[in-house]
Amino acid sequence: MKELHVSGRILIDHFTTLDGVAQAPGGPNEDTDGEFVFGGWQAPLLDNTVGAQVDVGIQSMDALLLGRRTYDIFASYWPNQLDGPNAEIARKFDAIPKYVASRGTPQLGWRGSHLLDRDLHEELKTLREKHSDIHVIGSINFARTLLAESLFDQLNIWVYPIVVGPGKRLFTEDGPPASLELLSSEPASEKGAVLLRYGLRNAIPATGDMT
After folding, report:
1. For residues 141 and 67, what is the distance between their CA atoms, to the nearest angstrom?
2. Consecutive H or E run containing 155
3. How far, in Å, CA of 28 to CA of 5, rounded?
4. How many CB atoms lie within 10 A of CB 34?
5. Would you kindly state where each structural domain of the chain is located, as residue ranges?
């Protein structure tokens, strides 16, 4: 009997404030574009529950798909953590393939790194055939492209109960419309974060008349 091939999934993992800002959750110098002053906003709100949820995704992934800026941040940090307190995560990231979307031709020195071709649709089709769970972490600009062109399967958003005002957002005012399906929701921490998982409906939002 011929074995059926099941296409791999592309999952976008995102941390945002209540007003939708996803810029620089990890540290003050992560991304200061636009004179952003709240870099590291996620750090005081992390706890074991969020860590466990993130770890489940990390353990299941067999490839990373990143924008150039996020790749540079990861490549400068994780290879140096192979024997540190976050060694399990670091070794996982080091072992799996890393695919990078960039308009340029950067030198990718991290082990197992590959530059995506300009034909994104064909590249992602190939990745789905090679991998089961491909995760996009951060990478705001690249994630916007995946959303705009319906090139993802699941969007995982951790929403934190803070408002920071101006900053980079996954969903912009001039972004394309989309209709998503809520797959699940669960509290992510006693500090008020909520994890929302969405699937893609491939439909324009409907309108109606309340009367």
Report:
1. 7
2. strand 154-160
3. 44
4. 10
5. 47-191
How confident is the chain (211 residues) per 10-residue block, as mean pLDDT? Answer: 65 96 93 95 91 92 96 94 92 97 90 92 95 96 93 96 96 88 87 93 85 84
Helices marked H in 78-187: 87-95, 120-130, 140-148
| Sole residue written with tokens 């991304």 | 31
Take residue 25 and report the two structure tokens written for it. Answer: 């959750």
pTM over 0.85: yes
The H or E element that residue 160 is part of is strand 154-160
CA–CA gap between residue 126 and residue 8 (Å, rounded): 10
Calpha distance 3→94 (Å, rounded):
31
| CATH number, domain 47-191 | 3.40.430.10
Distance CA 83, CA 123 (A): 33
